[in-house]
Design a protein that fits this description.
The complex is a heterodimer. Chain A has 2 domains: 36 residues; 143 residues, lipopolysaccharide transport protein A fold, CATH 2.60.450.10. Helix content of chain A is 16%, strand content 52%. Chain A has 1 helix and 11 strands, in the order H-E-E-E-E-E-E-E-E-E-E-E. Chain A has a 6-stranded antiparallel barrel. The longest helix of chain A is centred in the first third of the chain and has 29 residues. Chain A is elongated and about 100 Å long. The mean pLDDT of chain A is 86. The C terminus of chain B is likely disordered. The chains are: A alpha+beta, B mainly beta. Strand 11 of chain A pairs antiparallel with strand 2 of chain B, so a sheet runs across the interface.
Chain lengths: 187, 165
């Protein structure tokens, strides 16, 4: 029994003990009945920046809190804020919401829920702000869609409609249906 | 009516598109505008801010786009053209393309008609290439009425309750 074999035995026994402990903990977890799924990792005051192939700033996202669930491969944000830079435009679009989800099959798609507001930074004409209940954000094509009611506020007017398609590359915001609006009287 | 221009202007349409690059907001599909007694109906309408005056100007397009307003006299003033440009602050109306105007029975047809709903001034112009004319039709009784009105108002100031002679 020279020192080498001794070292191997010691190594393997500690490995076995550790493995056995981990199994124990896993076992406990399942043993305690339906477990509230705990996130695999969490981040607070998250800030991430993405650049496109030419190295231009493509999008930025910040969030108060983020949880990632490996089993469902879903990421949940609270108070996410996205800044999206359309092609050839230096001023970004800002999209904020109470909650956000990234989907497993396509991380380039974000679903934002509750008090979603969209505004073009630095551009107050012809639209100042767009608000709705939920949107689907496509970070690849830089588009945003919803079928919910959408409320637009502009300089001296407001309008609303059902369903929205916003294209941040050619900077257009479209209300799809049932549009009504009011322009304030010029006192 | 007199205070039409002081009213809020409301719009309904099928869809709306905001184009931030060119600062233009357009409405499509059965577009209806109401401001007091003023009604504009068009297929498409865009709201732009006028460079000179900075006013909010509505450019309506239709086959034709139509405009109507109840005049102070209670009569209906209507206008139609392929392109109607309406300045909601100054009350200037520019009708282009097969323009027709009918104010209290006096009709006018021309390529372009400018009409201000505040002071009801009208100027009309043909396209200038010679094969179209400005036509104005003033029905007989309107002419008489207009003449009496001038005689009366020049003789004594207009009173609130004016008995018909």
């Amino acid at each position: 029994m020279n020192r080498v074999t001794l070292a191997i035995i010691v190594f393997f026994s500690t490995a076995f003990v550790l493995y056995w402990q981990v199994q124990q903990k896993q076992g406990d977890k399942i043993a305690q009945g339906p477990q509230i799924e705990r996130p695999d990792y969490m981040a607070t005051d998250l800030n991430s920046v993405a650049y496109d192939e030419q190295g231009n700033l493509s999008s930025k996202v910040t969030a108060k809190h983020m949880e990632h669930y490996a089993t469902r491969d879903t990421t949940l944000f609270t108070e996410p804020v996205y800044w999206l830079y359309g092609e050839g435009s230096d001023s970004p679009w800002r999209i904020s919401a109470k909650e956000g989800r990234l989907k497993k099959d396509d991380t380039q798609k974000a679903y934002l829920d509750w008090d979603v507001t969209l505004e073009a930074i630095g551009k107050k004409e012809p639209i100042q702000s767009v608000s709705t209940r939920h949107v689907e954000l496509d970070l690849d094509n830089k588009t945003m869609t919803t079928d919910a009611m959408v409320y637009i506020k502009g300089n001296g007017f407001q309008s609303q409609g059902k369903g929205l398609f916003a294209d941040f590359n050619n900077e257009t915001v479209r209300l799809n249906d049932q549009v009504t609006g009011t322009y304030e009287a010029n006192k | 009516k007199q205070d039409d221009l002081k009213q809020d202007l409301s719009i309904s349409a099928k869809s709306q598109a905001g184009d931030l690059k060119n600062n233009k907001l357009s409405y499509f599909g059965n577009v209806k505008i109401t401001q007091g007694s003023i009604k504009i109906h068009a297929d498409e309408m865009s709201a732009v801010s006028d460079e000179k005056s900075g006013h909010k100007v509505f450019v309506a397009k239709g086959k034709p786009a139509t405009f109507s307003q109840i005049l102070d006299s209670g009569e209906l003033g209507t206008a139609s053209a392929y392109n109607i440009r309406y300045d909601s602050i100054s009350g200037d109306l520019v009708l282009k393309g097969g323009a027709e105007l009918d104010i209290g029975g006096s009709k006018m047809k021309a390529e372009t008609i400018r009409y201000n709903i505040e002071n009801q001034h009208v100027t009309a112009a043909s396209s200038g290439d010679g094969n179209d004319r400005v036509q104005t039709i003033i029905p007989a009784e309107n002419y008489q009425e207009a003449r009496n009105k001038n005689k009366k108002s020049s003789s004594k100031p207009k009173t609130k309750t004016e008995k018909k002679q």
